Amino acid sequence: GKVTSNVEGEALGCSVRGYEIHSGKTSGNRRPFVNIKRREGKDADYCDGDMKEGRFYGTYVHGIFDSSKFRESVLNLIRSHKNIAKRQGADLWEKREEEIEKLASIVRENIDMKYIYSLMRKDHD
After folding, report:
1. What are residue 22's DSSP bridge partners?
2. pTM for this one?
3. Does 26 share its domain with 51?
4. Can you give the C-alpha Rg of the chain in angstroms?
5. Are 27 and 46 in the same domain?
6. What's the domain count of the chain?
7. I need a labelling partner for 20 at 20 to 30 A (CA). Which of 8, 27, 89, 112 fits?
8. Domain assignment present for 61
9. How far, in Å, are 37, 58, 88, 103 from residue 11 at the CA level?
10. 36 neighbors 44 (Cβ within 8 angstroms)
11. Residues 76, 68: contact at Cβ < 8 Å?
């Protein structure tokens, strides 16, 4: 049957994480794409996916592109094959955290929490 597992590992020199969904194993002559180091929070050591000719990649790891460094590496690999200059992207998780903190500050500055807490106490009285 189908198996879903949280995994962490390395691909293209970057730390990656995601979840695998598959049944069975990939076989044949292959060049593994992702080195899985942790599975469901436990140490692991196995290879996932396949690479062909440095241009074709496959993996069972879903969510792998959530890693901005990995995504940047893949895009730069494509750029190098097309003779386009490499570039460095922004860390989207860091940017997301900054934006959440900005929103939290706006909420803290504009909401009367004492009033909200007093309403909550009235409901329980």
Report:
1. 3
2. 0.60
3. yes
4. 22
5. yes
6. 2
7. 89
8. yes
9. 11, 11, 18, 34
10. yes
11. no
